[in-house]
Specification:
Blueprint: H1 12-22, H2 26-34, H3 37-49, E1 56-60, H4 66-72, E2 77-82, H5 85-95, E3 101-105, E4 118-124, H6 133-142, E5 144-155, H7 161-182, H8 186-198, H9 202-211, E6 214-222, E7 227-234
Parallel strand pairs: 1-2, 1-4, 2-3, 4-5
Antiparallel strand pairs: 5-7, 6-7
């Protein structure tokens, strides 16, 4: 298979193409690299979103749509959106018959949805791959109803120094070997490690969300801070006098 690798410039076409190449074995590789913790983190994200029957929810960077299917199980109407057609194809193949679930190819920096269309928006392990994440946070706010909510599930920075050093050793030395053993494009997971190391810590991401106009921003760590869930609410727009 052709090898393709993104870099920290995060050109959308390159990143999308990279995910197209890893789509078929993406879930299996994630299970292996996280020792199954990805399922625990997905359940935590679903609980944080708290989907309700009849709500309309955007699951951006849906990937193979396992998170979208989990949200739709509540009776919500869920739009699974991703900029990788290969990933969405896998999602449709596996979850195309799930009631209330639809699929849309979409760019996080220019979403094809109306203002205030969704009761809740969520994004798991995708914001880090967007070329301009602050633009994406503003776009997510735009398509959320006033009073609606956002949940961002993203790799983060373990606060404990010793654990952080162990985690970085795993990412630098172990993760690439696991990815090449079980994955379909080992170089793609070199980018994964680089993007995690370059990503801001929890407090900075919370500040980005406030800058984008989100309010009541808070976060909590999962797995000692390997992953963090950031939550916030869309308040009413300020009226200029």
């Amino acid at each position: 298979m052709t090898s393709q690798r993104a870099d920290l410039a995060k050109d959308p076409k390159t990143v999308s193409g990279m995910f197209d190449l890893v789509a078929e074995r993406y879930d299996f590789t994630n299970i292996a690299m996280t020792f199954g913790l990805d399922a625990v983190w997905r359940r935590a994200t679903t609980r944080a979103v708290n989907p309700q029957p009849g709500e309309k929810i955007l699951d951006l960077a849906a990937g193979t749509c396992r998170s979208s299917a989990s949200l739709a199980a509540s009776g919500a109407q869920v739009v699974a959106a991703d900029f990788s057609p290969g990933m969405l194809a896998q999602g449709k193949k596996r979850f195309g018959n799930v009631r209330g679930l639809s699929f849309v190819e979409a760019d996080a920096m220019n979403l094809p949805f109306a203002d205030g269309e969704f009761d809740a928006v969520t994004m798991s392990y995708g914001l880090r791959n967007v070329q301009q994440p602050k633009v994406a946070l503003a776009e997510l706010r735009r398509v959320t109803k006033p009073g609606g909510r956002i949940v961002i599930n993203e790799f983060s920075t373990p606060p404990n120094r010793v654990f952080r050093a162990l985690y970085r050793f795993y990412n630098n030395e172990i993760l690439p070997r696991v990815a090449r053993l079980v994955g379909s494009n080992g170089e793609a997971y070199d980018y994964l490690n680089e993007s995690i190391q370059a990503w801001p810590a929890q407090k900075e991401l919370a500040a980005w969300m406030r800058e984008a106009g989100w309010s009541e921003t808070e976060y909590r760590n999962l797995a000692f801070g390997i992953v963090a869930l950031h939550r916030a609410t869309r308040g009413a727009d300020r009226v200029e006098k």
